[in-house]
Write a structure and sequence with these properties.
This protein has 153 residues and is of the alpha+beta class. 27% of the residues lie in helices and 42% in strands. It has 2 domains: 78 residues, 2-Layer Sandwich (GMP Synthetase, Chain A, domain 3), CATH 3.30.300.70; 58 residues, SH3 type barrels. The chain has 3 helices and 8 strands, in the order H-E-E-H-E-H-E-E-E-E-E. Helix 1 packs across helix 2.
């Protein structure tokens, strides 16, 4: 079963409204049909990272209440509010801000200063680049980054 684009956009707007009130970022959003019911999935986090299970449960109740009250998806639907997880790919500036001060691994689209892989402590996140430290400071432009991940010790 496919959800109408207008209905999906209506739900997404409300989710964004709820998250904005709570000062939480929406990282990914999708609605899909699974095992006989619709599933509304929102991946969320604080701008600085650190969303908890309790935060996700609170948001789940708010989103579920809205959809239920408005009877948008009928009586049989599921809401999943999830955190991005520690092993998620870092792609956008806001992703890097969430792991500021932590060790990261970076894979580049093409070699930069002779290397296509870097790792080190994320020291700063600018508008155009990040700065990592591994013995010395390296400034790496966002435009060269394929993706990065937090290094799990």
């Amino acid at each position: 079963m496919i959800i109408e684009k207008e209905t999906e956009e209506r739900i997404k707007r409300k989710v964004l409204e709820i998250l904005t009130r709570e000062n939480i970022d929406l990282i990914e959003f999708k609605i899909f049909y699974r095992e006989g019911s619709f599933c509304v999935r929102a991946m969320v986090d604080f701008p600085e990272g650190g969303i908890t299970l309790d935060d996700c449960a609170h948001l789940n109740r708010l989103i579920f209440s809205y959809i239920d009250k408005e009877e948008i998806l009928g009586e049989d639907f599921v809401v999943e509010v999830i955190s991005p997880g520690i092993d998620r790919k870092l792609k956008e500036r806001r992703d890097f801000l969430r792991v500021l001060g932590k060790n990261i691994k970076i894979w580049l689209k093409s070699p930069y200063k002779g290397k296509s892989y870097y790792e080190g402590l994320l020291k700063s996140v600018g508008e155009e680049e990040i700065i990592i430290e591994k013995g010395e400071l390296f400034s790496i432009p966002f435009s060269l980054i394929n993706f990065a991940k937090q290094k799990i010790e």
